[in-house]
Amino acid sequence: SxxxxxxxxxxxxxxxxxxxxxxxxxxxxxxLQWYRxxxxxxxxxxxxxxxxxxxxxxxRLRVTLDTSxxxxxxxxxxxxxxxxxxxxxxxDAVDYKLSFGAGTTVTVRA
Amino acid sequence: xxxxxxxxxxxIIEKRQSVAFWCxxxxxxxxxxxxxxxxxxxxxxxxxxxxxxxxxxxxxPKDRFSAERLKGVDSTLKIQPAKLEDxxxxxxxxxxxxxxxxxxxxxxxxxxxxx
Lengths: 110, 115
Prior knowledge:
The structure holds two protein chains of two kinds.
Chain A (H helix, E strand, L loop, with lengths): L3 E4 L2 E5 L4 E7 L3 E9 L5 E8 L4 E4 L2 E6 L4 E6 L8 E9 L4 E3 L3 E6 L1
Chain B lengths: L4 E3 L2 E4 L5 E6 L6 E7 L6 E7 L2 E4 L8 E4 L6 E5 L8 E8 L9 E2 L3 E5 L1
């Protein structure tokens, strides 16, 4: 079974708007990663946040982690057409197995 | 730096036929993973190698799937005989960190269609 679950399943926004997606997980983790997958391509690593961190930034990306709620959010600011992709969270639990969620599909309209 | 190379990119076979996928990881990466991604789902780990040894193959359907990593570099994933439900993208990934806590580098994937 998948450890992480993203919400919403799909998101459609206008170019320039912000996109927020969430990831909830079931068991304690060591760290959480976010990946992007463009249609027909492999996954690309975006950002890693450790269990003792609460927030992390990378360019237009902002990730938060709330271990008490077992959830994380990914915010993409000032979205562009190139941000159209599926976004996956991946968690490594106590057994160190990396588990991916089903993803959030983001469509950025011009 | 060259990325993870996979081939073929696309393969269409009839059920009960066999197929093999090849992966060349990033140079120097000791850990290699094979994931199966069914349409609309996230990647599911099939097998993980550390150098040429298997670390985790608990989700590999061993009655039909096999994988090897000779000399700790290239890897092949074989399916024999294929079933309709094996239609998926097979993703290879590598990492320099064998603890599963680091960044994974993915190839473009091999899309399999079983008719």
